[in-house]
Design goal:
2 copies of one chain form a homodimer. Helix content of chain A is 45%, strand content 16%. In chain A, the strands form 3 sheets. A 7-stranded mixed β-sheet of chain A has the order 1-9-8-7-4-2-3, sandwiched between helices. With 342 residues, chain A is α/β, with parallel strands linked by helices. The first copy, chain A, has 2 domains: 234 residues, Aspartate Aminotransferase, domain 2 (3-Layer(aba) Sandwich), CATH 3.40.640.10; 95 residues, Aspartate Aminotransferase, domain 1, CATH 3.90.1150.10. At the A-B interface, helix 1, helix 3, helix 4 and helix 9 of A face helix 1, helix 3, helix 4 and helix 9 of B.
Chain lengths: 342, 342
């Protein structure tokens, strides 16, 4: 069973939701399904618009950059921050890039000067740095960036709904295969009214990800411009209904508790976390271990799939995921097995 | 049941293949799966490289244009030709656009002068114009374009594997949800050695669709650069195994026969085809009908989902799909029902 930060293991019920006969992308059934999904995100997370893309999370990041980037500032503390930088470079007029040490958390006091001195009008940052399990203080940073007149774009691919939405994110991006507990293949982009104004005034550098096309089709029919990944939309709907039954606040708490449990376990085995204190991720934990591949191999023989850290600590740390209903449910069991092979 | 040109109705076995537990995108299992799929396309269709994208077919067209377009010539005879034009415009240094009447077929004698006089180094054309069911003579045109030094990019989203691959296509694009009989969400791009040389020498205008990133990851591990749509890859593998058991040549014939059967039926009811004689599509038929929505409504009450034509004839013609195992299998039954409501 996958205990990676993502794709996460998916519940049977969600997998089986993919089996329903296909509906057409230009049908009333699609209007009902796609409309329900997009509105769910808008209503529950207070965004003006939301579009669900047939792409991985990286595609949704490209969508944001191709439609919204201008003079960009990218803050980074790891592999996924650097990926945001690469994407922003391709679509921005100018890019400033500031990186802090991997494992450390991004917070306002560390980047305040950068924000104040920046000439950027667009901020890019990662909410939850998946490579080493660090939850950045995206809200603290975005709130200040907005005061300074920037549009804030937050990559929460491995964060939400394991962590709450930073209120000051103008553009909020996630994907299906992490804490949502859905198979991979859907990127989700949510936009504030400021973000909508920006993309309406700019020419998209992508056709496939052109938000004006998404808006035109949505206004007309609540359908997407290109054929969506219909069976994955079915799975997403089932997952959101389960999430709705539990409640978002409670779901955030479940992840916070799972993170605390994983860290208590690691600490009891004297295994150090890569993440700085105060910035521990609720959806995954990366811990130092002398020979990651040996531990990962031992866990595979027990049926659990873990992965090494990414970036600077790739050869020194192991990551475990605790995101989505199924991983949360079976976390104790996995930790027990881990205890047995350490 | 869907009898649209695509998404087509998908067989139970292919739908259920999506239910298998997820594997990780950086695992040996993914290497085996993704490698098998890409090699299948390369080997069976004689291409140098193939990549399977988490996107709709439109995403795969964007991939081609963002990596390969330069001085482009776009030939069109309908809605999807114009879409190619829109995509080419975004990524080309210059674009020439030539359109013939909708319903008419593109063939060498009609565009020879255009090819000879063109300053383009890249040709874009649609193989099977889905909007009105016209199969263009892509091979005749591409062979000549190659003689003239152009790289040939062919959109076969609704064509292959209902129609054979044009041998002179350097870049050949299809998607999962048409004649392959797989749910939507996968774009497939196949490349000749000339196409590989071109993208290696050019800078990609997309990060998500950057073919150099696909190649780097594939060379290293036969894995894609971003998380793929894993459950759709499962479905694709099952569909290709079924296709393999039947044989590609036989599968093309099955579609040719289904097309002939549909046309014979329409002709016996004195319903005129939109497609010019000699250019009839093997995967769908568009026929004139005084009130398309009325007929479509009547068929829906019988459980069959048809769609109107797109473009110039949207208000005057109806389309029926005959692509993929399931539609082929149930074509007689659908035509009988259609006969009952005409």
């Amino acid at each position: 069973m996958l205990f990676s930060p993502g794709p996460v293991a998916v519940e049977e019920e969600v997998l089986r939701a993919q089996d329903k006969p296909l509906i057409h992308h230009r049908s009333e059934e699609m209007t009902a399904l796609y409309g329900w999904l997009c509105e769910w995100f808008c209503n529950r997370l207070s965004f003006e618009e939301c579009y669900i893309l047939a792409s991985s999370g990286t595609g949704a990041l490209e969508c944001a950059a191709a439609n919204l980037a201008h003079r960009s500032l990218v803050l980074s503390n790891g592999v996924f921050g650097r990926k945001l930088h690469a994407i922003a470079q391709l679509f921005s007029r100018s890019v400033e890039f500031v990186e802090i040490e991997e494992g450390k958390g991004l917070c306002l006091e560390r980047v305040e000067d950068v924000l104040v001195q920046s000439k950027a009008d667009t901020l890019f940052m990662v909410h939850n740095e998946t490579s080493v399990g660090v939850l950045n203080d995206a809200e603290g940073i975005c709130a200040r960036a907005k005061e300074l007149g920037m549009l804030t774009i937050v990559d929460s691919i491995s964060g939400w709904p394991g962590a709450a939405r930073p209120k000051s994110a103008d553009v909020f991006i996630t994907s299906s295969q992490k804490a949502l507990g859905v198979p991979p293949g859907l990127g989700i982009i949510m936009l504030s009214s400021e973000a909508v104004k920006r993309y309406e005034a700019q020419q998209s550098k992508s056709y496939y990800f052109d938000l004006k096309r998404f808006k035109d089709f949505y206004k007309k029919s609540k359908q997407p411009p290109s054929t969506p990944a219909v069976t994955l939309l079915y799975a997403l709907k089932t997952a959101l209904e389960r999430l709705e039954a539990v409640g978002l606040e409670r779901y955030y708490e479940m992840h916070a508790k799972a993170g605390a449990k994983a860290r208590a376990f690691l600490s009891s085995h004297a295994l150090g976390l890569v993440a700085e204190k105060g910035f521990e991720s609720p959806t995954l934990s990366a811990f130092f271990y002398p020979s990651p591949q040996k531990l990962i191999g031992a866990m595979r023989t027990k049926g659990y799939f873990l992965v090494p850290a990414k970036g600077k600590y790739a050869a020194q740390a192991v990551r475990i995921g605790h995101a989505g209903f199924r991983q949360l449910e079976r976390l104790d069991e996995m930790l027990e097995a881990l205890g047995g092979v350490l």
